[in-house]
Amino acid sequence: MGPVIRRLDDQLVNRIAAGEVVERPASVVKELVENALDAGARRIRVELEEGGKTRIRVLDDGMGVPADQLPLVFERHATSKIHRPEDLDAITSLGFRGEALPSIGAVARVRFRSRPRGTAEGAVITWEGGRFQALAPAGGPEGTEVEVRDLFFNTPARLRFLKTTATERRRAVAVVTEMALAYPEVAFELWVEGRESLRTSGDGDPREAVAAVFGRERARRLIELEADGAGITLSGFLGPPDMARRDRSGQHLFINRRWVHSSPLGAAVERGYEGLLMTRQYPVFILHVGLDPAEVDVNVHPAKTEVRLRRERELFGLVVRAVRERLAGANLGRRLVRVEWEGEAGAGQGLDGGRPDRASLYETGRLFPGEVRDVAPAVGATEGWRRAAPGPEVAAAAGVDEVALPATLAVPEPGGEREAGAAGAGKELPPDETQAFRRLLRTCRVLGQLGRTYLVAEADDGLWLIDQHAAHERILFDRLRRAGSEPPVQQPLLVPIPLELGPERFELFWESREELAQLGFGLEPFGRHSLRVTALPVHLAGLADGGRLEAAVDELLELWQREGRRQPDRVLALLACKAAVKAGDALTQEQMDRLLQDLAATDVPFTCPHGRPTALSHPWSDLERRFGRRG
Amino acid sequence: MELLLDHERFSTAVALVERTVSSRDTIPALTGILLEAGEGGGSGVRLTASDLEMGVTTQIEADVRAPGRVLLPGRLLSSIVRRLPGGDVRLATDGSGVVHLTSGASRFQLRALDPSDFPTLPQVEGGPWQVDARLLREGLERTEFAASPEESRPVLSGVLVEVEGGHFRAVATDSSRLAFYQVPLVPPEEGAEVSAEPLHVLVPGRSLGEVRRLLAGLEEPVVLRVSEHHVSFQTSTFLFFSRLIEGVFPDYRRVFPKEQQVRLTVDRLALLEALERIALVSRKGPAVVRLQVDGELQLESHGAEAGQASESVPVEELEGAGRTAYQVRYLTEVLRVLSTPQVRFAFSEGDHPGTIEPVGEEGYTYVVMPVRLP
Lengths: 631, 374
What we know:
Chain A is α+β, with helices and mostly antiparallel strands.
């Protein structure tokens, strides 16, 4: 007899579906917290035992479920959140499929107690392995309490696939953390193995929620971002470059308050940090993107951590620009002061056994209050090196600094966009730390060179150390970036430099000859697949010797082969790095003075294009404290 | 070891070698000055310092009572010897790694470094060639500035030193300008052994700076020797050696322009001062000067922020007319190292090198590429 095809009973269907929705304790936590939020909760408490494997308990003060509807809670596709097909196009609630509770109920022992607001009594329903157990009246506070025990007790295969308790715990904690960041108006409490792990005030201030998660000191250092325009609002916090991590664990992106795991918009934020971070460093940020729900398709992934966006390219550009502009106006100078490491779980631990890593030794520089915000955006383009000359209105808004806005990122109404950002919720404008830093560079006095690597300078506020290579790199990088609007002076070579490339590399290189010519390189073919460099941009004269040009070309070709030509700024950074003075080069007083003046004239004087700081400060107050002159 | 030294001689010798004492103490032995008194006794003591890139050794007379070898901290020894009032200096070891230095009423007990860590000096025996000290110094002085400044750039950070066809030559370039110095060799003294082979070596600019310093005031032949990786310069008072730069120096013979559209003679200091003045407005990036010759020499400089400046400089023996532009630094640097009252300046329009030569001195040519303005 052959196999018989039968319709699966609901119980089995739920167990299979549970595989999609309920993967691990963290997914249970997520579903339950989302339900609580959809129920209008102002307080949510989550408790985990053994990382949620043996017990998860979620309490909320939401609207609750009337006793007569409790049996429906565990029925598949029973939901209060959508009713008609059209509702799917504008989903404002977190859950909507009506799959969560039935799926959980199919693979665990669940106790669901609820008492609607304003009613005298509630009820409790228990459900085990997909089977109804009992329904009884129950007391307890208004709201809902869901307890999930022994997850996957009836599906040993899935149970085996769970990771260690520590891993599952970390994931579940991460879920609550994201929720707490997304909903600052909700007071979250997280208890892990009987210990309070997170508590947010729920007072609606995003900085409070962030402080609860990141620690108050680090939250203080975050750079607030507010921008809107073209039907999108951006709000949140950007970590200063020295807070960057080696992975993306510090990145929290929310689209319409839904935590999104991977999105081009996250990449857009990273792009906005371009030139501020070293390679394989990832910025820390908490970014809320607000969009018309009709533009977002969340029904892509069962866990809803991926979304599809309409107008993705446009949004990408907006995010890059907003982040870049905000960072350009922020004071990213760093201080030498050692900062006590805050015990943020797992983050930033040095490789050498729990010692604070390098980044933790720096604190962002002092804020310079009362300055007018500089609106000069960091210049850069996402495509092509050529960029449009700034339109009159942009140039006017940017003031004295000559800036070229990349055409691809130009927003139709730059003025309006800025105003909207500025007016954002009536908050104070960020002080113009860049201008203050520039003024400081212009007025400080170089005392000498330290180890042929750093300039030692005295400023009004104390001692400054400037990394000569990083500073020079930044200067050259900025000059290269300006090549589009401010054609470079070319220095032809007395002795042209031959470049043997081979056929394939020659083609790759030759394709970029126009861009290179625009930067000030003189190139001519020489033989079949070799080139002669006949002129260098006057700023990059340093490339002429020591195989630096060859090394730069090798790296350029490697970059182009690996990533195509999409990242013109990387090319500029690479050239700047190769041509800049190195640690170990002796500098004259005049050269050192010039270096600071030139650095002051750059768009982002705080860091080199790879994100290393150019300057560290040691304010008088710290010197006095450390020498015991003052308490 | 036990030595008796004349303070003045000792002090001069210490000062001679002190500059090549390494300032970084990654290899402690290199921060020392090595004193060696020969087994045979009598003949004197040898002082040596080296930072591996270069080194100096010098021999002075001494009363050697017991031969031996000690390595003393260089800077400290130098400071002590310089401040001693004079008279004799006695140096003696006591077998416990401590050196006793006594002079008059001063007594020092110095902890010595381990002399076995001191590197052996390179054997440099190829050649020899002879170049007069004054000409060697002048040649280096007038070319070294044109080399690439940064030490991390090998080939062009050195000066090409050549002895060939009865001439001594020094050539340096940073690839956009080139300084060429050539003088006939002074015939060697009777009986002096001199190689007939040509000498071509590329010597680091930093080493040559030391050679120039050591040669100051000397009027005698300098003996040059080479080995695969080193060059040495020997006089009656010192033996200096330096590592060579490996690599191919560009073929400088091809860069000298044969014809020039515009030629003129100008007062060296007047041109230098005018350039320095007008460069003041060009503070952003490398300063550039535009030159226009049309019956007179007109200099002009623009600063994006500061404004602009112009100045005309009187010229003589003017031929042709035209305009060009240079990095100011490329002109002022050469005008500073020359010493004649006048220089001859010539150029052609376009991407062709200009030339500057001292009037009244043979053998020096400075070749410089103009800049291409946007």
